[in-house]
Amino acid sequence: MTAKNIDLSVDFAGVKFKNPFLLSSSPVSNSAEMVAQSFEAGWGGVVFKTLASGRWPIVHPSPRMNPYHYGSTKMMGLQNVEQISDRPLKDNLLDLLYLKKNYPDHPIVASVMGFSTEDWQYVAKAAEDNGADMLELNFSCPHMTIEGSGHKVGQAFPLLEGFTEAVKKVVKIPVMAKMTPNITDITEPAMFAKKGGADAISAVNTFRGISEIGRDDWIPKPNIFGVGAESGYSGPAVKPVALHFIADMAKCKGLGLPLSGIGGIETWVDVLEYLLVGATTIQVTTGIIHYGYRIVEDMAEGLRDYMASKGINEVTDLIGKALPNLKETDHFDLERQGRAEYNYDICIGCGQCYIVCNDAAGQALEWEAEKRRPKLIEDKCLSCMVCSFVCPVPGLITFKEMPKQWQRNETAVMDPSLEKELKYERFEEVDLKT
Amino acid sequence: MSYAEHFQEMEKGIGLAHAIAEADRCLLCYDAPCSKACPAETDPGAFIRKLRLRNITGAIRTIKDNNILGGACGVLCPTSKLCEKECSATGISRPIEIGQIQRFLVEYGWQIGFKVFERAKERKEKVAVVGSGPAGLSCAGELAKQGYQVTVFAERSEPGGVIRYGVPAYRFDKKFFKNELQDLYDLGVEFQCNTKIEGKAGVEKLLNDGYKAVFLSPGLWGTQPLIPGPQNIQGVFTSADFLVALREERYEELGKQIKGKRVAVIGGGSVAMDCVESASKLGAKDVYLVYRRSFAQMPAEEDERLEVLRLGVHFLVLNQPVDYLTESSGKVNALKLIRTQLAEPDASSRRKPVEIKGSEWELDVDFVVEAVGQKPDEAVDWSPAVKLDKKGLIVADPESGQVSSKLIFAGGDIVRGPALVVEAVQDGKVAARAIAKALSKT
């Protein structure tokens, strides 16, 4: 199969997208001019930056973002105090009309937020009337400066249900509810949204976080003229956590709504993982803030080539495919054990494995100083595999399953002679199988 | 035009982002091989780890505590033959730029005003250091850190010896060196410049003046005559005199003799490369590098050789200088050469150049620099206070640098012959430890 025959299009809550890659509601989808550029670059659709009624003025703090760098890696994470759109509602609606007219095959999801039931309904209707194909209800902004909005709604589940219901009453287009991750169990608010009539769920908005504190002034960043605030943290650093929220909702039996995955997506591999745990579309902001709209080219090309290599034609065939393999930890087969396996021939002798095995694992490595090579004491290996995580040579350290009769040596007691001083009685045996 | 422009500053080092990227690439080896490869006990394994873990001041401390000339070594050390040669990252891609990181950290310390050293409680004993090159400064710094009262005697008007006067400024400039020297001033080291300690008598005077120990590190400033016979031909310089003249910024005097003229530099080592590059920068029309062996046999580093080739220097390899031809005024106007070919290996295990009979020829030149190796200054007689070997080098105990029961020590080129800056630094440290040990007993 060649990558040319691959179909990346998806049907998402009744709306057809040519590919599952969407801009999320943020600075990257602030105007028609920007969104048009993104469509030219290959994005399949947009969640337009959150519209409000205009009854409350929106003013952006300055500065409004702060990066979290890791060594020389830029922007592992990004913190922002970005507000919803500060443009007049009318300008935004004009931009929706422009996009609808010029890019009819690129669906527009309008993100909306209200501060009262009437407010929600007013904005929702305005968006529908001016070309929106779908709505996203912003229940999740973690740093709104206006009380009773953003993730405060997302954390007050009956309120979330009520606003969803109110919007559903006034529009015909599908409605998606955007979840905050700043809760314990995401399936709870998702179920409330469903009860309110939501047609889809998007998740997650940014995490409340503190990315950095000024070392000279002790003011958390972004430093808004002497004041910092806990606010929305995003980027690759949050991806593993965001992915679990999608998986939880996909596995939630009563929910059954299509999901739009958000959080730390930059590459086709990230997209693939979101699809595999149940997302139908994905949304990106931080990746674009880091690299620009052009990343979509690599997402599409990479995903197509991957699908071709796997003989998969339709991207929808990937959705949820990892879920059957995702279980609670009590499903593990603990009878089967293994250990690390070393290919010493390709070792370059840095010895990082030796350090971590000694300080953080089973002390299962010896060090041959002259040759500068590790030597594995096989029956001491805990199979934690941390040595392979620090090893700079791909494929040098691999996991190897051992035969049933193989036994790991238990960690030695430093001084068995202390047993005579030991105050200890064995706890009553419990048969775990009964 | 200003010749000086070419001789003011060296190239900029790397910045913070580059240094962090290199630290990220470092494999942070167990029992780091780079740290075992430095003659001066530098510990890149530790200072790169500290940089990686955002402990930048600690990284600077690791470098400077061990080597008060850590910046100079970062700039001048042939790292590709030492620490970087042993780097494990070579197995993945290429070695970590250890020398550059070291230089960066030292410069960063200056930028943020971070001081590694604090003055120790003063001790009463005075120590004299003769010669202000890397060995002398290293010895002085170590002793001053322990509170000894150290005076460094420098022959020229500024301290630094070979790294101040024997290396062109575009390789190691004054501004950088001034920052590095500041640590020695801050530690209370005193400098007596324009002061030559004249051999045995001079050393004995120091001991009589109350100095409890003397460290000799005068370096090698004498030269091997290339061609036997009367010297002082006008227009013929030794490399030492040529480079000193440059570092004394006598650009007008040199420029007059070199700009638009034909210059020959004789030799194949790093110093010869510095001389041809300097002659080019002074505007010579043609610069010839005359060397009796082959290109591949030159002791200079490959990148130094390639760099001067790119400058347009003409390499006359397999040519042995035989004589100078002069005008009636006594000024050189040609170099008589004889062509050579390589025969069997000699004592240096390099193939020996043998003259080809009847192949003499004359190269018209206006200016010649002899860069054929340096030796001790014969005018200075250290004996019998210290023992000299056949080459005139001081014989010192390799474990301590001691040369006499009278607490006279020596190190650097005067003991080793031409050696690396790091090796001189190590000699200074070793002698300082031995001096401190001896003085703490008295």
- The strand order across the widest sheet of chain A is 3-4-7-8-9-10-13-14
Shape of chain A: elongated
Biggest interface and its residues per chain? A-B, 15 and 17 residues
In quaternary terms, these chains amount to heterodimer
Backbone CA Rg of chain A: 26 Å
Q: Supply the number of helical segments of chain A.
A: 12
CATH 4th-level superfamily of the largest domain in chain B = FAD/NAD(P)-binding domain
Mean pLDDT over the residues of chain A: 95
- CATH homologous superfamily label of the largest domain in chain A: Aldolase class I
Helix content percent band of chain A:
25-40%
Shape of chain B: globular
CATH architecture of the largest domain in chain A: Alpha-Beta Barrel
CA radius of gyration of chain B is 23 Å
- Our count of helices of chain B gives 16
Described by strand count, sense and barrel closure, the largest sheet of chain B is:
6 strands, mixed
Overall domain count of chain B: 3
Total separate domains of chain A: 2
What's a quick, concise take on this entry?
Chain A is α/β, with parallel strands linked by helices and about 425 residues long.
Topology:
The complex is a heterodimer of chains A (434) and B (442).
Chain A: E1 10-12, E2 15-17, E3 21-23, H1 32-41, E4 45-51, E5 65-70, E6 73-80, H2 89-102, E7 108-112, H3 117-129, E8 134-138, H4 151-155, H5 157-170, E9 175-178, H6 187-195, E10 200-203, E11 207-209, E12 231-234, H7 239-251, E13 259-262, H8 268-276, E14 279-284, H9 286-291, H10 295-310, E15 338-342, H11 352-360, E16 365-368, E17 373-376, H12 386-390, E18 397-401
Parallel strand pairs in A: 3-4, 3-14, 4-7, 7-8, 8-9, 9-10, 10-13, 13-14
Antiparallel strand pairs in A: 1-2, 5-6, 6-12, 11-12, 15-18, 16-17
Chain B: H1 16-25, H2 33-36, H3 44-52, H4 56-66, H5 70-76, H6 98-112, E1 126-130, H7 134-145, E2 149-153, H8 162-165, H9 174-186, E3 190-192, H10 199-208, E4 211-216, E5 222-223, E6 236-238, H11 239-247, H12 251-258, E7 262-266, H13 270-281, E8 286-291, H14 302-310, E9 314-317, E10 319-326, E11 332-345, E12 351-364, E13 367-370, E14 374-375, E15 402-404, E16 408-410, H15 413-416, H16 421-441
Parallel strand pairs in B: 1-2, 1-4, 2-3, 4-16, 6-13, 7-8, 7-13, 8-9
Antiparallel strand pairs in B: 5-14, 10-11, 11-12, 15-16
